[in-house]
């Protein structure tokens, strides 16, 4: 009888935690083949959240120990519903100075949540598209890295800006 009550209490706590409102408006990952080719674009289509609240935008990556660079260059393009496009070339640190990969995770897969834009208000209604492409270069080389190893998944997330009380 006591075991049943403990089990029931545990289930209630579990469902309460799971059912809490998430801060995520959008959170999606797409798998990358064994190597992320420089011409391969990962895209996400997003229907507009409300047009009043500010949101934080993140690029999410999963990588393995096969990733051999200390940084990562990405080209990220956001296309607005009425045709406007914003294109950014971004650099992120992926390892500390000793070469240890950054990110969360205890196995050989690390997860990195990288800032893209802060306090974005989606003023246009309709569908937005975000395109992400790797733009890595080796030191002294003009041409980009043809096929980048070690990135397993590319994601994009939108979080509702938390209002501090």
Radius of gyration: 19 Å
Number of helices: 1
Q: Main β-sheet: number of strands, strand sense, barrel status?
A: 4 strands, antiparallel
Number of domains: 1
Overall average residue pLDDT: 85
How would you classify the helix and strand content by structural class? Answer: mainly beta
CATH fold-level label: Jelly Rolls
Strand order of the largest sheet: 1-10-4-7
Give the name of the CATH architecture.
Sandwich
DSSP strand (E) fraction?
over 45%
Which secondary structure elements does this structure contain, and how are they paired or packed?
Layout: H1 2-19, E1 24-31, E2 35-37, E3 42-47, E4 55-64, E5 71-79, E6 85-93, E7 109-120, E8 127-134, E9 147-149, E10 151-160
Antiparallel strand pairs: 1-10, 2-9, 3-8, 4-7, 4-10, 5-6, 5-8
Structure description:
By secondary structure, the protein is mostly beta strands. The protein has one domain (24-160): Jelly Rolls. The chain has 1 helix and 10 strands. Strand 5 and strand 6 form a beta hairpin. It starts with a helix and ends in a 5-residue tail after the last strand. The model is unreliable at 4-21 (pLDDT under 50).
């Amino acid at each position: 009888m006591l075991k049943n009550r403990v089990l029931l209490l545990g289930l209630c706590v579990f469902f309460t935690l799971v059912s809490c409102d998430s801060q995520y408006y959008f959170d999606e990952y797409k798998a990358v083949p064994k190597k992320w080719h420089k011409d391969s674009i990962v895209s996400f289509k997003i229907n507009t959240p409300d047009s009043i609240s500010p949101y934080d935008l993140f690029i999410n990556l999963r990588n393995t120990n096969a990733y051999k660079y200390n940084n990562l260059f990405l080209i990220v393009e956001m296309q607005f519903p009425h045709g406007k496009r914003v294109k950014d070339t971004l650099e992120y640190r992926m390892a500390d100075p000793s070469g240890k990969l950054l990110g969360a995770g205890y196995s050989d897969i690390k997860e990195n949540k990288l800032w893209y834009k802060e306090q974005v208000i989606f003023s246009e209604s309709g569908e937005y598209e975000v395109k992400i492409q790797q733009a890595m270069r080796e030191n002294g080389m003009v041409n980009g890295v043809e096929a980048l190893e070690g990135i397993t998944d590319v994601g994009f997330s939108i979080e509702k800006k938390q209002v501090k009380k």
